[in-house]
Amino acid sequence: MNHSCLRKTLRQLTVAGALFALALGLSARAEVAKIVPPTADERLAALEAYVNNTDPGKSLALTPGPGHNAWMMTSAALVLFMTLPGLALFYGGLVRKKNVLSVLAQCLGITGLVTILWWACGYSLVFGTSYGSPFIGGTEFLFLSGVTSAPNTNYAYWVSQNVFAMFQMMFAIITPALIVGAIAERMKFNAILLFVTLWMMVVYFPLAHMVWGATGWMNGVWNAAAVIPAIDFAGGTVVHMSSGWSALVLCLILGPRIGFGREKMAPHSLVLCMVGTGMLYVGWYGFNAGSAVASDGIAANAFTTTTLAAAVAGFTWGMVEKVTRGHASVLGFCSGIVAGLVVITPAAGFVNAAGAVLIGVLAGVVPFLACTRLKAVFKYDDALDTFGVHAVGGTLGALLTGFLATADVNSNLVSAAYAEKNGLAALIKHGGLWVAQLKAIGVTLVLSVVGTIVLAYLVKALVGLRPAPEAEQQGLDITDHGEEGYIL
Amino acid sequence: MKLITAIIKPFKLDSVKEALTAVGVEGMTVSEVKGFGRQKGHTEVYRGSEYTVDFLPKVKIEIVVSDEIKDKVVTAIIGAAKTGKIGDGKIFVVPLEDVVRIRTEEHGDQAV
Amino acid sequence: MKLIIAIIKPFKLDEVKEALGAVGIEGMTVTEVKGFGRQKGHTEIYRGSEYTVDFLPKVKIEIAVADDVVAQVIAAVTGSAKTGKIGDGKIFVLPLEDVVRIRTDEHGDSAV
């Protein structure tokens, strides 16, 4: 009785299972059978859409486009190259030789840490939409689940979502690494890692969603419901303002390095600094031209404006030094190039060549004054000038984008689907975008400053911020990492 | 005349230099050296290989002074270089028979 | 015996070495040092932060010689290192109690 009952149940289960499997296997085929094969016109239209970076329609839907993907993988690698080793060497050369490894270790540590955060929740919190919130993304992509080689059409029709996620991750890596510049030579390694973890959650992920998320509060170009129709092509607010203003606050809370203003704290190797600058310059093509998220005309425009602004700013900074101080210094050229790249970042895909040259000139002058005059007046110890270059440059760039953006180089600024609805198109046509930019600047500033104040004091209470004075004097290479940069 | 050689902690160089200038010392020679005394070194690990580094970076200052100000100079160095912690360094005083200024070929105290 | 220490301008090292060779000096120890005397340093500016660099690169030569050649050696160094401009350097002469050649255990003048 029991046996036959069991056998019957088993048989029923087997049949049910077989039917289920069959249904699964057939459903796809049945669906295909129902769909009419695309016509030659539809297939041609899909290929045109690939060339034009527009919606492929049915024929090639959710298929990555090889050219766009190739450029985005290259760009992602270029942006990583900006941090490792570009920024690491740029900053490493600017510190004293007893701290060179600490800066490299901080860049390396942040790269691994942020990658883990990005995989676990960062990507989802920035580019998800499941909360439908203007301030934070969603939960659908936690642990990169569902992030495959198929494009996410919220962000790109032709770029694999996994490539898009890796590209955006490189921005999340370099942003906290920039903060290292203001607190170099005097913050404990474990305090830095804890601060960065908290800062990513509280400041970066929400801000990046607001500016670039499909439901973002300040995403003027791609969110029809954006409340502040501001624009930020590659991260003037998200990357440079956020890191720069947070860096200033953190450096004020930390206090100056021991001996600041009395001991010689000159850069130990301007050669490393120059090599790092060159890598940043080249890597920035991925940062800016890659931010088109396609290998299209907008990317080509961003490539051009990036080149012009960086070269003009580097030259301007050097010449301003030559006139005011008598020497055009290597550090001056390097600083100007980085400043030019920072200021063009929010504008790269929105301004024309003339706009880029104007941005280059201002980038060579305004951050120069911030680094040389402002710092001297207020006497804060922004060791490697993260505030002077990135906060001042990022803010300047965000504002200038408001005056110089033109639909002539980027028709997305007046798109019917988004810009017409949220008011961006009207601001572009009739002027006044700078007001929206000012609002975005204000939001970024408040979030960065308040977030950093709270988190810095939290980290101070939990693990302490500064090494022992003796350790700081000996240098962080030996005390925090047990190694020496240069062995006799 | 005396040759005074001081081995000090590197970050103390600027304050020692200022203190010496204050007592009228007008020139000095400085070299980066490594050394150890009672101060223990530290351990560095490279991929599991551990190295004990006994020799720590120090700065050696050499100055030549007339006999009258010798004591003042030694006091000035001590005042500026002392932290009270192990590894503050040492001062050696060596008799000097002659000094020559190469440019003028002056000898003795005049050349100091 | 005497220990002669000469601080000279770095670009003069070869000439001094030749001049010393000409008076029979066969060995010397050379160190790169930094120093200052009456010669003024210069100012370096890094992004607005100004540093006064008093210490200029110099070369220190150390030679141990027998008493009877001291005057000749000093003349050789001054003759070859002199440019007549400020910053030419100095020569210090110190009494030396003993010298040992490590290889042979020789002491005194024969070890020089």
Question: What does this 3D model show about the protein?
Answer:
The complex is a heterotrimer of chains A (488), B (112) and C (112). Chain A has 488 residues and is mainly α. Chain A has one domain: Ammonium transporter fold. In chain A, 68% of the residues lie in helices and 0% in strands. Chain B is an alpha+beta fold. In chain B, 20% of the residues lie in helices and 41% in strands. Chain B is built from 2 helices and 7 strands, in the order βαββββαββ. Chain B has helices spanning 13-22, 70-81, and strands at 2-8, 28-35, 42-46, 49-53, 56-65, 89-95, 98-101. In chain B, α1 packs antiparallel against α2 (70-81). Chain C has 112 residues and is an alpha+beta fold. In chain C, the strands form 2 sheets. Chain C has a 4-stranded antiparallel β-sheet with strand order 2-5-1-6, with helices on one face. Chain C has a two-stranded antiparallel sheet with strand order 3-4. Chain C has helices at residues 13-22, 70-81, and strands at residues 2-8, 29-36, 42-46, 49-53, 56-65, 89-95. In chain C, α1 packs antiparallel against α2. The longest helix of chain C has 12 residues, at 70-81. Chain C has one domain: 2-Layer Sandwich (Alpha-Beta Plaits), CATH 3.30.70.120. Chain C has 2 helices and 6 strands. The interface between A and C is medium-sized, with 17 and 7 residues.
